[in-house]
Design goal:
Elements: E1 8-14, H1 18-26, E2 35-41, H2 49-57, E3 64-66, E4 71-72, E5 78-80, E6 86-90, E7 93-97, H3 109-120, E8 124-128, H4 137-145, E9 149-153, H5 162-170, E10 175-177, H6 182-192, H7 202-213, H8 217-223, E11 224-230, E12 237-241, E13 248-251, E14 256-258, H9 259-294, H10 302-333
Parallel strand pairs: 1-2, 1-8, 2-5, 3-5, 8-9, 9-10
Antiparallel strand pairs: 4-7, 6-7, 11-12, 12-13, 13-14
Length: about 325
Amino acid sequence: MMDQKPKFIVVIGTSAAGFFALAELLSQLNEEMDAAFFVVMHLSNQGIGGFLVNQMQKYTSLPCEEVEEPCKIKKGVIYFAQPNKHLIVKNGKVILGSGPRENHRRPSIDVLFRSAAAASDGHTIGVILTGRLDAGTSGMLAIKRCGGTLIVQDPNEAEFPDMPLAVMKEIEVDYCVPVAEMGKVISKIIRTKPVINTVIPPDIINEVEIGEKGGTIDTLEQIGEKTVFSCPDCGGVLFELNNDSVTRYKCHTGHSFSVNDLLSKQNEVLESTLWVALRSLEERKKLLTQLSEKNLQSQRSVADYKDKIAELKKQIDNLKSILFATQDENEITA
């Protein structure tokens, strides 16, 4: 029956170039699988939830639903995140979270994966497809720590192999296969895996609560150590989380970053600051040029103005060199 409680929870995460990989995977799912399926696709900050659901429905016989309000989880349904809301599995239901962004994203792959691990322990299957950077790594680790099963797309066929490679670098995955084989693998796991209920680590439970409602300083002090770094989103102090092997940072309001995402965000803030400085230097140079041409202040010679203008030109050229180098670094980490 379609409304039966599923034995397994399958969570799927992807980003860049993930549309066709996701479509191929969903086309292999069928109602014989005793599972419910959840999808978070990192694309842009624009709301495309309804469009994605409508497009994916063309590739599968299972019903695709965009979660708009809390509802009971049903076997054989594929649930999609709503734009700007975290997708969270909790107490046999799927709910929407308005907690802080993780790795600049809401919905977040890691928030979904972590909640599924806490709710379904060894009955959770995590799947990472093509994508940039390392979104999904900490979520996959949470699934592993709770006794679940990990599947990643073979990086050799992924258009953007960063996400599968990031998981494989940090965690021993159970399966690394082409997308075309994932349906069979998922079916096999559901049919044959002996599942033992696992005690959920307290830090994972705390992070699920943060993803749903936001965090507090007291919560962060329980699961991390205070650093000298500030959150690039809100300016709060970042805590280094120390309860698993993946280095991550989270502020007390709940904004969370992997190392790569924090570096990327710091570069963005640095670039913005440098552009403001460049604008100020250009405006000062322009004012001094006008003063030099009009000789409005008799106590200063034209030569003094020209010396200052020449020095400003050097500073502007140096700042532009730094800016261009910063932009190149952003492209590398993007």
